[in-house]
Description:
The protein is mainly α. The chain folds into three domains: 13-124, Serine Threonine Protein Phosphatase 5, Tetratricopeptide repeat, CATH 1.25.40; 126-195, Serine Threonine Protein Phosphatase 5, Tetratricopeptide repeat (Alpha Horseshoe); 197-244, no CATH class. 82% of the residues lie in helices and 0% in strands. The chain has 13 helices and no strands. α2 (32-45) packs antiparallel against α3, α6 packs antiparallel against α7 (128-140) and α12 runs antiparallel to α13.
Amino acid sequence: MKQLVFFLLFPFVIFAQSSFEDVERMLADKQFKQAESEMKIFVSQHPSDLNGIELLADVYGQQKKWDNAIEQYKKLVDFSPNTANYHYKYGGAMGMKALEVNKLKALGMIGDVKAAFLKAAELDPNHIDTRWALVKLYMQLPGMIGGSKNKALRYADELEKLSKVDGYLAKGYLHAYDDDYELAETYYKKALTIGRSKICYRELAQFYVDNKHYKKAILYLNEGYEKHGTDEFLQQIEALQKQN
């Protein structure tokens, strides 16, 4: 009997893995409609498959179909309330929806967004993306509805303990948002010194662009291009040179 059960289940596992890989390739190729169609069929046939529900939600998110994405992520939270990443994605989808609606409706959604991120942070003390989301949320919210630089700094400090590069980038972000040029520059440079990644070069260069220090931006984009050979950096250099 056990052999029969294994025989019946094994083909499904292989099918599911193969189906998901195909859909992920479709997403990489921006074949969103086809990916959505595949995953809707799969989830309708396997309504309790969490991986399938998550991938369908991700497909909706890629297309900015936030209502659909929220519905699917909410299913994941209900099925598995102790999974931090499900709360993070649920909060993220609600946050993106809030950016598209009127201010009054957005204000009504902020509490749910914050609650989802805070739950994810509570469930997983090592969840880097959640802490990034909280840094940005607390910096961008007005004080009267819960914005707080001190709370943003708290999560930036947590990020720094998990990853110095992420912590320094987060502190660069929040000080830049607070118009503290010197501290922002210091932290972006600290991140670059130890990270040397594309993201580090991109963030420091963008910081200089935002502050109209185009020569400094070009300097670091050149350095980043020499290290990583990224066409994106070369294109930015050319665009900035035209502005000067």
